Structure formats: C-alpha cells, structure tokens
Amino acid sequence: MTARSAPDRLLSVLSAFDHEHSALSLTDISRRAGLSLTTAHRLVGALTEWGALERDESGVYHVGLRLWEVAALAPRGLALRQVALPYLEDLYEATHENVQLAVRDGAEVVYIEWLSGRSAVGVHIRVGARWPLHATGVGLVLLAHSDPESQEEYCSGPLASFTPYTVTDPVRLRRVLAEVRRTGVAVSSRQVTEDALSVAAPVRGAGGAVVAAVSIVVPQVDAQVPALIPAVRLAARGISRALGWQPVAPRDTPR
User: Fold this and answer.
1) 83/167 Cα distance (integer angstroms)
2) Domains of the chain
3) Residues linked to residue 202 through DSSP beta bridges, in sequence order
4) Which of 48, 59, 129, 136 has its CB surrounded by the most CB atoms within 10 Å?
C-alpha cells in the first residue's frame, strides 16, 4: 500500500468533520481519518495551533474560525452570498417561502445560502449541504447549462432515487435538461421529498456563464408555479447584474 503523504493526512483530519460530525474527540478524528492516534494527535495539535480547529473545555474539537476566515475568501462562497443576499431577501419578502442559492461542485450542488420560509414543507437543506444535481431545481439548472460532455457523463452515471418521482431515467433526464434550457427555469416536483416543489433560475457571471442558481421551495400541493417563475427569474437576473452580467440586446429585425 502506498504511504499517504503529509498533506493527505492533514486533509483527512479536516475531512473527518461534516454536518453530522461537527464535534469530534481525538479518538473519533483518528478513527474517521484512518490515522493512528499518535499521528492524529500531532496533526490535530498543529491545526489547533494555527486556528483551523478549536478545542473546547470538554476536550472535543470543532472547526476553528481561522478556517472559516479563509473559506470566506472563496468567490463562489461567502463572496457570492454577499452580492446575492439582498435579492434573496427581496424574493423571501415577496413570497415568505424557502429561498436558496447554490453552486455546482462536481456531480453535486452545494447550498451557500438558505432563507427559511414559514411553510411546513419538508426541506432537507442547510448551508453547506450537498445533493445530486438531478434531484433539485438548482441542480437541474446548473447541469443544464454545463458543457454537453459534462451533461452526458452525468446522465450516463448512476442516478440516485429519493422518492418514487425522482428522475432516474437518463433519457427522461436529458429531456428535462433540454426543457430547462428552452424555458430558462427548472421546475422540480417531489424529487427529494414528496411534499415539496422548487422553481429555479440561473445566475450568470460577468462573462455570461452560469455560475450559480437561485430557487424557491414551496409545498407541492396547490403550488402556483406560473406566479413563482417571474419572481425567481427577477431575483436571478438581479444577482447576475450585480455580478457584472449584461444581457445581450436583441438585434433589430432586417427590413
């Protein structure tokens, strides 16, 4: 077996933490990182000294503020969130429903902002949460606007199912993606939970490429999709303009 490099071991310590394991003892870190207790102790000590980890009074470790400060510099993270937040808040005030902002990371969508609505709809989302692209409205938008090779690779792979309505047929998924490109929005109904429906629209960067997606999630029963689409589009368009995107003016029709 090839020996793991020092950076690999260091990253394995940080990777031991996730949303289900946000507080870990040294023994937990050692086990989850696949390291000896001695090695884990040394690496955890170095990370704690730098500020990437913090140790509370009970001896349990948490992710430290220094790591959060570095992560805040990511242009697709908090920087994008700061630009988008006023428009997300406007969308929330107009609807009082769940509002989300997400970016793509490989075959998954990562949520970087979420405003909780008043409805009782089941939303399995939090900041930093990940879901497969095909199972969410924001994910469908991001996948539909990726390059054709990336889309084909995703459609050809395994498509996880979460409800009886989740799209898991590659042929059907390709049709859904084509419809998203045609209409400019994605409507995802009962894909992750059977009581939720989302409407999502693309957010474009200064160069015109889709860099994120914004969505609203409402109860599936009696969802007023035609009324939601303009609101989501308006929010996405506002964020895009704030990022420097300029829509191309239509050409005059030759006479």
Assistant:
1) 32
2) 6-70 (1.10.10.10), 78-242 (3.30.450.40)
3) 213
4) 136
